[in-house]
Each structure stands twice: as structure tokens, then as C-alpha cells.
Amino acid sequence: MKYRKSLIMLVAAFCFGIAPVTHAIDLGNFNDTSFSIGGFLKAEGIFENPENGDSRIFGRANQSRFNLKTVTQKQGHTVVGFIEGDFYGGVYPGENNDWRLRHAFIKIDNTTIGQTWTGQFWAVAFTDYLDFFGGPRGTLAGNNFRTTLASYQFQGLRVTAQDPVYADADTPDLAINYDLNLDGGHRVILTASGREVDNGDFVAGGAIGTKVMLGVHSLNLNAHYGEGLGAFTGVGVNGSLSDELENGEAVSQTGLNAGFRYVFNNQWRANVSYTMVEVDDQAETNYESSRMNLIHNILPELEVGVEWRKYNLAFGPLAPEGQQVEVMAKYAF
Fold first, then answer.
1. 66-99 per-position pLDDT tens digit
2. How far is CA 157 from CA 122, 148, 179, in A?
3. Does domain 2-67+117-332 bear CATH number 3.40.50.10960?
4. How far apart are CA 331 and CA 322, in angstroms?
5. Predicted TM-score (pTM) above 0.90
6. Calpha distance 323→309 (Å, rounded)
């Protein structure tokens, strides 16, 4: 029973973006299989003041998502099926709100196969962001990257082989995570990443993520260094993965991220964070972002919040260079 409860919480974390509160609605059991649905409805209003171009205000609800989960206990095995989608098929504001597949995987005991988060995504100790696209930018979860993969977990160790980012690669992209949970809620995550890049070389990088509990508050710290990481951080890749190469050689990058979460009580919390990435390219690409937010849980399932953020580099219409202020309401079920 304890295993099943922890598994449900893990899968719920997938669908709610590593949110502090997770929910699911049980639909019942049939032939040794339990069924549940989950997700949330989120409405956002955003004021944007870019460095280049006119200010604007717009709303969207594309981030709203739904999922279906099954858990089967049979012959000593636990089999989980999970599928989830949202409405970012059109991606940018003003485009359509088509349904988009986020996750579709099968988990058989400790083995996961299908489409879900990359092994690099699991390298990060997350801060509580409202910003869906720009929030983790600059960490190894920066591109919200989901792909087809196979992974195996043994206690705190996770080994992942996944569909390569470079389409002509001869080897899968690889990630190895070791997640160490300590007494008092402290946490350390060590990650090694390797992948083949456009010139055929196999390059590698590493990351460390830490969560330090300060009473009910928490400090999250992340750092990474290596080559071939721009595909995951979103920094140093400007529309083409070939940007990770210069003069035919892979470009390295170094990134740091720090976030502090302050809990006033069980209804109010606030977060501040800072991210920087330096790319060892000829342009000396240097990314910085800052943000702060305030979140209020009206009910455990219903929260509202406001967030200010600033980027010094643009990442398309959803995360322009300049400042944004977002107000949002989210109902999770």
C-alpha cells in the first residue's frame, strides 16, 4: 500500500508540474486495475513589457491539462499506465489550442517505457514557478523536454536511454541520476548526461541539484557544466541544434540556479529565484533571469498567484527579452 501511494504521488508530480499539492479523482476498480483521472484548469493574464516592441496584455488557458492513470496489481507486479495532454498544440498565443500529447508511458515495477520527462529533467531541484515556459529555463529542465525513452530505477538510481535529439545519431541520449533523500527533507541529485551531437561526437556533462530545508522554508540550488546540454537548458540553441557547435566542435556551458521558498502558513507562500548560464561560444552568450511570486491557496485544490519575471534573452513569443507580470488562477482535480 505504501508503494502504491508513493507511486501515485510520483505520477501526480508529472501532471502538476512538480506542484506542492497533488490531486486525483479515483474512478474505481475493474479486473485488478484501478482507474483515476487528474489534471488542472489554469487561466492566466499576462502583461508584457519587452525590450524590443510594444507592450501588450493577453490571456490564455492552454496550460490546462487532463490525464488518465491506471494501476494494476497482478502476479506480484505493479503496472502503471499514464497518458496526459494539454492545449499547447498551437504553442504560441494567437495560434490554435489543439490538444497536445505530454506523457504516454507504461511503468512496470521499476522500468518505464514510453514518452515522458527526459533523464536530464530529473536532475533539477525545482522552485515553485508560475511561469510554464521560462521558469526552469537555464537548468537541465529548461526546455520542458519530453521524449520516447526507457528508464530503470533502483532505489535512488535512475538510468535512462532516450530518443536522441540529433536525428542522425547512432546512439541514444543517456542520463544517469542518483537521488539521495536525507533526513529532514534535504535532498541531493547527481546527474551525468551524454549524447551524440551534429558532428558525430559523443559529448557529456554533469549537474547537481540540492534542496535544503530551513524549517518549513526551502532553498533550491542547481548547477550544470558540460557539452551538448543546450538542447535541455534551451540556452545557446537559437532555433537549430547546430548552434551547439562552433568550428565543428561542441560548445560547453556553465549554469547556476538558486531559488528560495518562504512559507507564511498553509495558505500563503512566496518564491524568489535567479538563473544564469554562460556559454563558451564566440558570441559569449550570457543568459540571466529573475523572478518572484506570491501564491495563495483559497482551497487545497484552488490557488491564485502573481509573478514578476525578467529575461535578458528572448526565447520566442512566450518568453521575450524584457519583463512579464502574470496573474493566474488554477483549479486542480
1. 999 999 999 999 999 999 999 988 756 556 788 9
2. 11, 20, 6
3. no
4. 29
5. no
6. 6
Amino acid symbol at 85: G
Task: Give the CA distances from residue 211 to residues 19, 155, 242, 254, in Å, rounded to whole numbers and listed in that order.
Answer: 15, 19, 34, 20
Kindly state the cell numbers that stand for 185: 527533507
Task: Give the three-state DSSP class for 11.
Answer: helix
Strand partners, 13: none
The Cα 322–Cα 313 span in angstroms is 8
Q: Name the β-bridge partners of 161.
A: 150, 174
Band of pLDDT at residue 133, cut at 50, 70 and 90: confident
Domain boundaries, the chain: 2-67+117-332
Distance CA(333)–CA(124), nearest Å, equals: 25
Residue with cell 522500468: 111
Mean pLDDT, rounded, for 238-242: 64
Q: What percent of the chain has pLDDT over 70?
A: 90
